[in-house]
Specification:
This protein is α/β, with parallel strands linked by helices. Helices cover about 25% and strands about 15% of the residues. The strands form 4 sheets. It has an 8-stranded parallel β-barrel with strand order 1-2-3-7-8-9-10-11. Strands 12-13-14-19-16 form a 5-stranded antiparallel β-sheet. Helix 8 links the parallel strand 8 and strand 9. Helix 5 runs parallel beside helix 7. Bound molecules: 1-deoxynojirimycin. 1-deoxynojirimycin (NOJ) binds next to loops.
Amino acid sequence: MWWQDAVIYQIYPRSFQDSDGDGIGDLRGIERRLDHLAWLGVDALWLSPIYPSPMHDFGYDVSDYKDVDPVFGSLEDFDRLVAGARKRGLRVLLDLVPCHTSIEHPWFREHPDWYIWSDAPNNWFSAFGGSAWSRLDGRYYLHSFYPEQPDLDWRNPELVAAMQDALGFWIERGAAGYRVDAIDRLLKDAQLRDDPPASEQFGLPLSQEEAKLALTHSRNAPDTGEALARIREAVGDSLLVGEVYLPSAKWQPYLEHLDAAFAFELLHAPWDAERLHAAIAAATRRPGAAWVLSNHDFGRLVTRFRRENARAAALLLLTLPGPAFLYQGDEIGLADGPGGERAYDRAGRDRYRHPMQWDASPSGGFTTGEAWLPPVDPEATNVEAQLDDPHSTLSLVRDLLTLRRLLGEGIELIDAVPGVLAYRRGDHTIAINTTGEDRPAPLRGEAVLETAPGALRGRTLAGHAGVITRSDERVGHP
Ligand code: NOJ
């Protein structure tokens, strides 16, 4: 299983590299940057949606599952990208958006019964606020996200067959699998019953409206596994990683069909050793965790954990057992930028999506035109400047990717003093100090990587730092 300990690099195609000067990233641009990814040492790239879309949710509103949006290129460009990636030993994963289509997908007009309708709305909320129901021609259609994203009915066999066809299409074209979008909302209560009031916390952050409800009916229906089995059927043994927005204790039915699920408990944990420890313990109670600390929905490491902790956060992400997802830009310590100002940015996520910064030029080397969203600080933060600096974030991430291959299987969390997260992976011990002060760390052997030079003195780890040590204890004990 190639993905078992793979590092999968998330590309937000709009913002990675533009090749034609229209200010929007595209597939040819990604192809041009494959050498960067191969040099960095990742195993695969995951492309956020590239399908034709009216872009109300930048591709998460699909209007054709079997083509490429002209803004990103063509099917031929996709084939070239896969071939180029393959040549460099990289796999390409796509984003499967099964929960909803665009309201402009021809299916919505031609096959209304593939969608979910009601004569009267129930109390379910959309993830972006407000009722999950919108009125059309005297009836209401369900949309778990924007009103431009009507929810599909996975209990309809015709819809399932159409989706299976689309899934197979990309696998045959060379995709190595899918990150599966919003899968906890794939199937809802068939009787559309109201969600009861919440009596306990959900375990992950929710909108204010949703936090008041138990969400027993609006997501995670008991027959979700049936739909997942059909998805699995269509992709064979290709990789399926689920965006299952549920606490890990509820993963089991999903993991019967998916290879892994994102550990959102860790993504949402504050930068505090005890809380990180608890989140890792919960997510590793069974195999199947995929690790993610940043993405196009929640922001980048530097902003989420503060600049002084970002290098230790990268170390954490890349030393846990199981596939890790690295968001474009985190390898150079790119920060979030401004957002929420443009009319379309209704959920305030532009700030996580500013373009990749390749060099110090005003466009960051992203485009020869005017970027759809300006780069944040190309002069201060860019790939070119960090390439030859052994202490740059880029060098740290590359070193981590090399070292990661030497870590032992599984994980043993170790008790440490408050403020220190520590775990063992075979001969290697990893310690992270989430405080701003020196702390003793339960390490063994010599440091093989520090997030800052001299961070480890004896067994004392500097504030904000992370370290990996390797013990030679086995030497002499065959
Ligand atoms: C999760 C995606 O990551 C997000 O960007 C999107 O808006 C929703 N799912 C709806 O597809």
